[in-house]
Amino acid sequence: MGNIVVAIKQVFDTEAVIAISGGKISDQGVKLVVNPFDEFAIEEALKIKEAGGADEVTIVSVGGEKAPEAIRTALAMGADKGIHVDISSLGVIDEFVAAEYLAKAIATVPYDLVLAGRIAIDDGSSQVAVRAAEVLGIPSVSSILKLDIAGSTATVSREIDGGTETIEIPIPALFTAQKGLNEPRLPSMMGIMKAKKKDLTVLTPADLGVDATAKSNVLEYSLPPARAAGKKLTGEAADTAAELAKLLREEAKVI
Amino acid sequence: MNFNLTEDHNMIRDMVRSFAETELAPGIEERDEEEHFGIEFWPKAAELGLAGVTFPEEYNGIGADYISYAITVEELSRVDPSFGVTISAHSSLGANPINMFGTPAQKEKYLSKLASGEHMGAFGLTESNAGTDASGTKTTAVKNADGDYVVNGSKVFITNGYYADTYVITAQMDKEKGNKGIAAFILEKGTPGFSFGKKEKKMGIRSSATYELVFEDVVIPKENLLAEEGQGFKVAMQTLDYGRIGIASQALGIAQGAFENALKYSQERIQFGQPISNFQVTQFKLADMAMKIDAARLLVYRAAFVASEHKVPVSYYAAAAKCIASEVANEVAREAVQIYGGYGYTREYPVERFLRDAKITEIYEGTSEVQRMVVSSKVLKDGPVL
């Protein structure tokens, strides 16, 4: 097997405070990281390469002007080269458009295997990678926990209700990684120093010649309602227990 | 002028922070309580390149700048100041004198293993009667018939002692010459006559190793003389000049760690029906802590910048950074305990540990008084600093 492509997305850090300003989610002062599920995909690709199962690992990311930071983190972990599809000129895009760009960018390099995270922790659509597989005309399996490759066949497992499903599938194919597939490594100091010397190609929408307009449109973002204050019952145990039962039945409607 | 860190620096900070939070944070209370040295974290730290940040690639180092090193020690110490000083003493005191003064053969043999982390390093300068005053060095080295050196004496308070594989030590060769009679040597663990004495029981950084080194007719081969005979004091002073950047970074990390805990706690602790961070008395404490840390960080990174540039001597910059950062660490950790109140005084919460850990940064690798001597001698000689 020759090359593995890993599709990654730069997302808000899990501890970031979400704020809305001017109808958009504000990225002011927010720390950006590689989507944690994509780290499993990167790690799996590196493990396959280190075991002699691939020659090269290429990182592809469709994203704005800061996306190269995420790509360089993957290069610091040990990936060989990166491709940034710079969509900062496009404004807001949907999953359909993102999948079109991602597929076209993947197709600029030879690939035998495409890996991605099963979900991005920001918008959580779980669509882009598998839709890119459709565009590329290759099979895909989502949320895998195990990946073995022998010749031109991949054997993958994933969790299903009440058990595990094992699937055999010809490659090239696309798989999305579930937590549990592996333990992603930290980039080493040497990896970080070497990352900036690795190839990072920037492609613009024009370079890819994609003609796609969003099929869905976000009308509004809103924050979840603030949690209402709790109620404290005081008095004799027997009275408060009766009061609690009444409130749970009539107000909270849980019993 | 540019105060921004590079993308590499930010990535290094993320990596070291992640290592510290996932590997070092669990069990830190027990390691402190039991005075357990965290040797088990060494191989992973070495694998990540933390043992050789500033050393040349040709000797298995990373070849990164001193700001990368400062960030590394700062981030380790933000979580575990004991492991922070383990890395600092190894790099700045154990490996750096060989990097600065070693012959190519010495670097090949020793630095390449220290920088990769295969070996751990330590530095033996201090003696029971020679602390700030290194001229009181009583350990002696006498040349034998083969031209090798026979060393007798002992060293105290040696960080990484017992666990380190390679030691740079100083010994007096000609008492008449005072500091100019001192020589520095590279000494391997396991050399006949070289043993370890008492393990110190300390107030803070209790999970770092601090041992006495004992030399009884230890024969050090002539090829392990570092620099020249009589240059040991110079080796030690220059080593400490750079080493202070490590301790300044450790102090900065302690201040940062104590502050983050206090900041969070102040927003959670309810008194008089509201978080104590709503009270101006707490807000002013937090403001002072934040400003002091910020000022210390600028001095520490500037010293690191000067050390990387190699254009002017680092001694003033490192002394100023170490003095201010260590005092800020103590002030911030003390206020952090105050914000926690009674809980802060218990071992249930991390701030009392930060306070105990902070104190040593005003003492080792030159006390605050020594740093003030360095600073005053500079301003008296060259005029006010600009």
Strand order of the largest sheet of chain B: 1-4-5-8
Indicate the radius of gyration of chain B in whole angstroms. 21 Å
**CATH-assigned fold name of the largest domain in chain A:** Rossmann fold
Q: Quick one: overall form of chain B?
A: globular
Polypeptide structure, described:
The complex is a heterodimer of chains A (255) and B (386). By secondary structure, chain A is α/β, with parallel strands linked by helices. Helix content of chain A is 28%, strand content 28%. Chain A has two domains: 3-208, HUPs (Rossmann fold), CATH 3.40.50.620; 230-255, no CATH class. Chain A has helices spanning 36-50, 67-77, 95-106, 128-136, 189-195, 205-208, 237-250; strands spanning 3-8, 10-12, 20-21, 24-25, 32-34, 56-63, 81-86, 113-117, 140-150, 153-160, 163-170, 173-177, 200-203. Chain A has a nine-stranded mixed sheet, sandwiched between helices. In chain A, strands 2-5 form a two-stranded antiparallel sheet. In chain A, strands 3-4 form a two-stranded antiparallel ribbon. Chain A is globular and about 75 Å long. With 386 residues, chain B is of the alpha+beta class. In chain B, 51% of the residues lie in helices and 15% in strands. Chain B has a four-stranded mixed sheet. In chain B, strands 2-3-7-6 form a four-stranded antiparallel sheet, with helices on one face. Chain B has a two-stranded antiparallel sheet with strand order 9-10. Chain B starts with 6 loop residues before the first helix and ends with a helix. The mean pLDDT of chain B is 97. The A-B interface holds A 33, 69, 72-73, 76, 186-190, 192-193, 195-196 and B 7-8, 11-12, 14-15, 18-19, 47-50, 53, 62-64, 68, 72.
